[in-house]
């Protein structure tokens, strides 16, 4: 019996076990995405969706709508990007769009969160996923631009389906809406055009999304 | 002005609009996956997960764990497969593993559901997704075998995390558990070995999963 070889095998086996243990721990940690609430109502208007449901929806939309991207995209990379795009919220929480104090510390809190969360993974995978998240945040590649188009379009589909329930609750003005949709055409002009004509204009015409000229 | 050319453009535009309309309708219909409950408790043990959350978890697991597949897999195809694998339940409902009457009509109900749901999409995309779902059901490719490994492993991770809460509630015997895990090693021997040693054996030893020899 070759003791040296056996010891090598044992090391390899325990290294593989350690790697897998790290991956399973991360997968378990990801479950917390299901506890993080968003502002969008599901299509039945009864409850609001959570980050995991939202990310699932974006991933299937990416697969179905990639043909409308302004530039060719790597579909697998974009799907991975949207599946994970919100996970920093597990530690950093969701920062509401009009929370000015919260927004000052947001980038720092999210960097810390990304470091801890992706640090649970084996180094190669953690570094890869952290880089994909940073690419999403930087919005400077075809994939990250299209991912933001998905992220912006999906809640509008749901809001239009519930007859504007979330828009009514928040008393949303057109200028606020447009501010949040700034990046949508950068990933897909066609999808932005569709969104505007079919999902937004009707709610502007009937007063659900409020005209800024009516502000006091 | 070339009237003929303009008319061609108009047709092309309205065809593209029709295609996109079909895709958005399908995306809206998919929202119903978030209403379909499963038997597995989330990691906090407070509520059970739904089909959309489950599919999101499988997709990220596929990305992270593909290195353990018995045979090389197409990761994108497998991710698409798991994202959509349960959507027939929107029409056909979830059939409980021990509902013998329900199981007789299950295949027929699910085929009808797949026909209606994928029929909402443009023909090329609908046919592609229906074929991927049929491949999942047939379990005869590396991708479909790995997808079933993900589908079987994910609830075991959550059940182990909640200290076996769902197993206790259902009074699960080892033979029942093994019956449901029959396909797990076919996609990945390594993941099955890990699952058995780390996530199952401890719950067999402490009696949470019941030994069949104790059956009356
Ligand atoms: Ca988002």
UniProtKB/TrEMBL annotation, chains A, B:
InterPro entries recorded: HD_domain, YfbR/HDDC2
UniProt KW keywords: Hydrolase, Metal-binding
Protein name: HD domain-containing protein
Domain HD: 31-189
SUPFAM superfamilies assigned to the protein according to its UniProt record, in alphabetical order: HD-domain/PDEase-like
Pfam family, one: HD_3
Family matches, as Gene3D superfamilies: Hypothetical protein af1432
